[in-house]
């Protein structure tokens, strides 16, 4: 019987065949590129700029008197919800939320809806700059809530700056027990408007705390349920409650 001569494989193929399919634990895997450290700060600044433009539009629409606060919340959230659904379909994001995130997501949606209503009402009732001062005190409140609820450390310098910022908020609100009652009849501002801004700032801070706990969820999922809740809540308010509330803006 003739001997069959076997041709050895080329070196490159031989190396591939001898390579293990299992990853060695001592082998360093290539790490994913980290985003620039200023990317997050830039996105926050850009978001604040867009919020300022939105607030100016709310104030302009409120001056015209064509829509109430809850109607503005409805259209703002309903249109945004359409965009976020398209984005979720395009990216094929799974909108199913694990059970461990249900509680925090529920409170995030409730706080967000009430925040939109109180903030838009405050913007329409107050000077736009003063309303923004009150609303943007939420990072200060988040600073204290983070230390209380999340156990984050507080430095002496940060604590002093927070106290000074809160003193500025007091100057904007001008409570009667510090500044006197004044002549309220000469002012066109609703006396309850500053308190609406404070409530919205507190709720925004609580929203940030729950968003911190929802960090493992895709941001499209969180935004989807927030906009859905706000649009549904505002729509139900306009249909069944708004006409029955006297003095509703």
TrEMBL record:
Q: What is its main location?
A: membrane
A Pfam cross-reference name: EamA
Transferase among keywords: no
Compartments (UniProt record):
Membrane
What are the GO cellular component annotations? membrane
Q: EamA domain spans which residues?
A: 39-172
Its transmembrane ranges are 38-61, 73-93, 133-151, 157-180, 192-211, 217-240
The membrane topology of this protein is:
Multi-pass membrane protein
For this UniProt record, the keywords arranged alphabetically read as follows: Membrane, Transmembrane, Transmembrane helix
Claim: Membrane is one of the keywords in the record: yes
Protein name from the UniProt record: EamA domain-containing protein
């Amino acid at each position: 019987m003739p001997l069959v001569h076997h041709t050895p494989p080329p070196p490159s193929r031989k190396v591939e065949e001898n390579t293990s399919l299992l990853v060695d634990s001592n082998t360093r895997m290539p790490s994913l590129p980290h985003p620039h450290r200023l990317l997050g700060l830039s996105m926050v600044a850009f978001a604040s700029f867009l919020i300022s433009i939105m607030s100016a539009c709310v104030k302009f629409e409120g001056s015209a008197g064509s829509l109430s606060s809850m109607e503005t919340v409805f259209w703002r959230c309903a249109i945004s919800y359409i965009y976020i659904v398209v984005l979720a379909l395009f990216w094929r994001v799974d909108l199913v939320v694990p059970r461990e995130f249900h509680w925090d997501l529920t409170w995030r949606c409730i706080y967000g809806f009430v925040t939109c209503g109180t903030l838009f009402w405050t913007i329409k009732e107050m000077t736009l700059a003063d309303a923004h001062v009150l609303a943007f005190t939420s990072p200060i409140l988040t600073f204290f809530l983070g230390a209380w609820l999340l156990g984050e450390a507080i430095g002496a310098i940060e604590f002093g700056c927070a106290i000074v910022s809160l003193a500025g908020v007091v100057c904007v609100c001008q409570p009667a027990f510090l500044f006197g009652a004044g002549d309220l009849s000469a002012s066109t501002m609703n006396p309850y408007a500053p308190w609406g801004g404070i409530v919205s700032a507190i709720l925004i801070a609580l929203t940030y705390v729950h968003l911190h706990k929802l960090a493992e969820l895709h941001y499209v999922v969180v935004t989807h349920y927030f906009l859905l809740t706000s649009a549904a809540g505002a729509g139900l308010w306009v249909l069944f409650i708004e006409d029955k509330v006297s003095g509703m803006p």
